[in-house]
Amino acid sequence: MSNQGGKQQRQSNGGTFAGPNSNNMFGANMPSSVYPKDSVKDVAESLGITNLRDNIATALATDIEYRIRDIVQSASKCMKHAKRTRMTTSDIDHALRQKNIEPLYGFYPPYTGGKKQGPWFRTVPTTSGAPLYVLEDEEINFEHILEHGPRVGVGRGVGWHAHWLAIEGVQPPIPENPVPLTRKMAGTDDTSLADAGEAAAELGNTAVKPLVKHVLSRELQLYYERLTSSILSPPTDAETETGTALPQEGMPLSNYSDISSGNLVRDAALSSLRGDAGIHQLVPYLIQWVGSNVTHSLRLPPTAQDPEKKLEEQKHTIQLLHTMLSTLHALLVNTSIFIEPYVSTKQHAL
């Protein structure tokens, strides 16, 4: 029994558990009531609850007192962890955060000579006789705000202006156009060539631009493949009965495009070249394709020994050259293409 009594006495002195003769959980040295029931009645009256019974106010005050002591005990742990002997408001805030309770937001006191000045409070009489302090409402003068406040200017309204979306297939870097996506490097060889060019530029004080990879969209690549295959090797079932001939025999030609190629698919492809306005990026590829076909057909000697087969090969070569000239003519008559930068390349094919 003596051991149990000593154990209970130590617990009571430690302030963790209450002894058998104590009136609260914090020991006999703590006061039995910290939060009065009159404060509960004042808060109830501010919320519109009148004639609150005493037993209810006492029960609420007891529960509030338990919550306060629990928070203070947690705050004392924060104080001891910080190796301090005086509890501060930051300890209370840390204790509230530990219990997932929003911290209290207090007020600075009125002007006491410091840098920060708090709001003024006024006393409001209550039925219990205890003073109640509330914040003094600040009167706002709307006339002063309208006269001396910031003035909002009227905007110009909604408008529009024109800008270049693309020039010769190249998108200009202006704010109206979207930012181009960053592309990966062309490869190890291109990187080494670019580094060699930069090194040569540093040695010879010459501005050398690194290699730039020209990227075509998937739609343009598909269009280029279908176009070249339709011009060079169209399907045989689309050939006309008359073949390559003038639309009106005996009449002078007013335009080179009036000559039929003898195949409906090839004519449709050449007609697309004459009027399509979105093939700016394909122009250098088409010029190079025409030049390579012309060079290959002229340099390739006839392989057949038979005179008739040799004549057929020559006719095939002439027909291929005629098709390439029709392709160049379709590019020239297209008013939406700026062909001047490729004139020197085109002259070699002619």
Automatic annotation (TrEMBL):
Tell me where in or outside the cell this protein is found.
Nucleus
Q: Which SUPFAM superfamilies match?
A: Histone-fold
Q: Which Gene3D superfamilies match?
A: Histone, subunit A (1.10.20.10), TAF6, C-terminal HEAT repeat domain (1.25.40.770)
InterPro entries hit by this protein = Histone-fold (IPR009072), TAF6 (IPR037796), TAF6_C (IPR011442), TAF6_C_sf (IPR046344), TAF_TATA-bd_Histone-like_dom (IPR004823)
Please list where the region (Disordered) is annotated: 1-31
The alphabetical list of record keywords is: Nucleus, Transcription, Transcription regulation
Q: Where is the TATA box binding protein associated factor (TAF) histone-like fold domain?
A: 33-97
Q: What is its main location?
A: nucleus
Against Pfam families, the record matches this protein to:
TAF, TAF6_C
A single GO BP term for this record reads: chromatin organization
Question: In which family does this protein belong, per the annotation?
Answer: Belongs to the TAF6 family.
What is the protein name stated in its UniProt record? Answer: TBP-associated factor 6
The organism of origin for this protein: Malassezia globosa (strain ATCC MYA-4612 / CBS 7966)
Q: Specify the taxonomic lineage.
A: Eukaryota, Fungi, Dikarya, Basidiomycota, Ustilaginomycotina
